[in-house]
């Protein structure tokens, strides 16, 4: 464990040794030109793209020195540009950044003869740290970990593990879900979340509104061996779908059913894990122990890192697959991951997500009470909350959401949207958010929405 020391958020003054070249001065017009001409699939949230030149804790600064409080970026769980993560990665990059392929070959010797070798220690320390956060595995055989580079890769691999283990193909997801960007995942993503028309193939979606019975029916399929589920995958609070919490018992009942059918349960904790919901894992509240947990986004606090933790029996089933990721779990990534875990503990961020989440939630609920014609309800958990705006009955999308987001931005608050009708304001700030920042956000959201919605 790292020893505790005061947190410094002063700019890093690292000595660059190898004659680093300075970045050319930024020209907004030039960047905009490149964006418009050469990046067709890269959409931005605002008509006038926000050019951020610096980010610290929960505050973003744009190229003109304007500051914004960030209620959107849930990657930077411990705060933007955290010196502890930057220093850990920097120090490791100067020692070694060998790929995992090499790591796996030298590891046994390093472990035996040279325990202080940073290469082996970091990846294994990180794996141990992840496992220490897991509940006891239901079969007592323990957990295995695969380190990858993103949430998409983690979910893709989880689906592959479930298919190989069960010998089945069908993956069941929940309507309005988002699990990533690979072509395998696009088979199960809801097209309302991605805009990509999913060719559902043998995969299927359970509709939450129709309740547990309907989800069980989707899982049962037509009773043939072919329609038996390989896996059921769920975000433990649905993100892109609008920060929507499952009804009590929903996940428990559906997970039990999947297990009775011989399928694998996958909890996608890419957004909800690592304290976001006021518990370390989102699934803790639901009283379930998934067979596979996937993670990404905040686990590197901005450094690309993802992981799959699965019951060891499942990992054994794909032992011969010789899985290999050049960068997955490389030493700098493991250094970032360890620094993030230590910082979550050091700054007591899980409890902070619960207390600040309760503060934000009570403010949002007051808005619903005061302006019931504008705001409908609040959903989510911890610092992962959704404020649902009322949608005019004939509208498919909330007609004023783009203007609302823009005006919040003009008042220094960055927010995101979600929900099937683009009608949910999503709140998922860094967990170090302060009370006065939340208070300012509530004021802006109230004034802007009451004026525009
Ligand atoms: C719940 C969930 N799972 C997986 C992903 C994919 O993660 P990434 O974009 O890092 O590949 C996302 C991304 O938004 C997500 O929200």
UniProtKB/TrEMBL annotation:
<dbReference type="GO" id="GO:0030170">
    <property type="term" value="F:pyridoxal phosphate binding"/>
</dbReference>
<dbReference type="GO" id="GO:0019481">
    <property type="term" value="P:L-alanine catabolic process, by transamination"/>
</dbReference>
<dbReference type="GO" id="GO:0009436">
    <property type="term" value="P:glyoxylate catabolic process"/>
</dbReference>
<keyword id="KW-0808">Transferase</keyword>
<comment type="subunit">
    <text>Homotetramer.</text>
</comment>
<dbReference type="Pfam" id="PF00202">
    <property type="entry name" value="Aminotran_3"/>
</dbReference>
<dbReference type="GO" id="GO:0008453">
    <property type="term" value="F:alanine-glyoxylate transaminase activity"/>
</dbReference>
<comment type="similarity">
    <text>Belongs to the class-III pyridoxal-phosphate-dependent aminotransferase family.</text>
</comment>
<dbReference type="GO" id="GO:0005739">
    <property type="term" value="C:mitochondrion"/>
</dbReference>
<dbReference type="InterPro" id="IPR015424">
    <property type="entry name" value="PyrdxlP-dep_Trfase"/>
</dbReference>
<dbReference type="InterPro" id="IPR005814">
    <property type="entry name" value="Aminotrans_3"/>
</dbReference>
<keyword id="KW-0032">Aminotransferase</keyword>
<dbReference type="InterPro" id="IPR015422">
    <property type="entry name" value="PyrdxlP-dep_Trfase_small"/>
</dbReference>
<protein>
    <recommendedName>
        <fullName>alanine--glyoxylate transaminase</fullName>
        <ecNumber>2.6.1.44</ecNumber>
    </recommendedName>
</protein>
<dbReference type="InterPro" id="IPR015421">
    <property type="entry name" value="PyrdxlP-dep_Trfase_major"/>
</dbReference>
<keyword id="KW-0663">Pyridoxal phosphate</keyword>
């Amino acid at each position: 464990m790292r020893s505790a020391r005061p947190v410094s958020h002063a700019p890093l003054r690292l000595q660059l040794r190898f004659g680093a070249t300075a970045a050319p001065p930024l020209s907004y017009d030039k960047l905009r030109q490149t964006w418009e001409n050469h990046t067709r699939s890269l959409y931005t949230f605002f008509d006038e793209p926000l050019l951020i030149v610096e980010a610290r804790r929960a505050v973003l600064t744009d190229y003109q020195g304007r500051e914004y409080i960030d209620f959107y970026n849930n990657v930077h769980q411990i705060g933007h540009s955290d010196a502890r993560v930057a220093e850990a990665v920097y120090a490791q990059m100067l020692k070694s950044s060998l790929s995992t392929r090499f790591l796996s070959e030298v590891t046994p010797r390093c472990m035996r003869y040279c325990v202080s070798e940073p290469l082996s220690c970091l990846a294994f320390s990180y794996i141990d740290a992840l496992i220490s956060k897991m509940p006891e595995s239901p079969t007592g055989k323990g957990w295995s970990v695969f380190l990858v580079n993103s949430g998409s890769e983690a979910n893709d691999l989880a689906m592959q593990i479930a298919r190989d283990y069960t010998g089945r193909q069908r993956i069941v997801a929940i309507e309005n879900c988002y699990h990533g960007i690979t072509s395998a995942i696009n088979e199960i993503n809801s097209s309302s979340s991605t805009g990509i028309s999913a060719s559902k193939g043998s995969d299927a979606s359970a509709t939450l509104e129709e309740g547990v019975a309907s989800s069980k029916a989707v899982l049962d399929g037509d009773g043939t061996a072919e329609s038996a589920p390989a896996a059921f995958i769920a975000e433990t609070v649905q993100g892109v779908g609008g920060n929507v919490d499952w009804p009590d018992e929903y996940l428990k009942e559906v997970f039990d059913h999947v297990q009775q059918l011989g399928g694998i349960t996958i909890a996608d904790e890419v957004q909800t894990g690592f304290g976001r919901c006021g518990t370390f894992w989102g699934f803790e509240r639901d009283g379930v122990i998934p067979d596979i947990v996937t993670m990404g986004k905040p686990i590197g606090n901005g450094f690309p890192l993802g992981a799959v933790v699965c019951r060891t029996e499942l990992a054994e089933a794909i032992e011969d697959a010789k899985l290999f990721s050049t960068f997955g779990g490389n030493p700098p990534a493991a250094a970032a991951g360890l620094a993030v875990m230590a910082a979550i503990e050091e700054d007591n961020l899980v409890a902070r997500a619960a207390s600040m989440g309760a503060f934000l939630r009570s403010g949002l609920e007051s808005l619903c009470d005061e302006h019931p014609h504008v705001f409908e309800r609040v959903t989510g958990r911890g610092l992962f909350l959704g404020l649902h705006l009322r949608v005019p009955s004939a509208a498919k999308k909330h007609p004023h959401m783009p203007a609302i987001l823009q005006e919040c931005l003009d008042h220094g608050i960055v927010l995101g949207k979600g929900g099937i009708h683009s009608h949910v304001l999503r709140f998922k700030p860094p967990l170090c958010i302060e009370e006065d920042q939340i208070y300012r956000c509530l004021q802006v959201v109230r004034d802007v929405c009451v004026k525009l919605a």
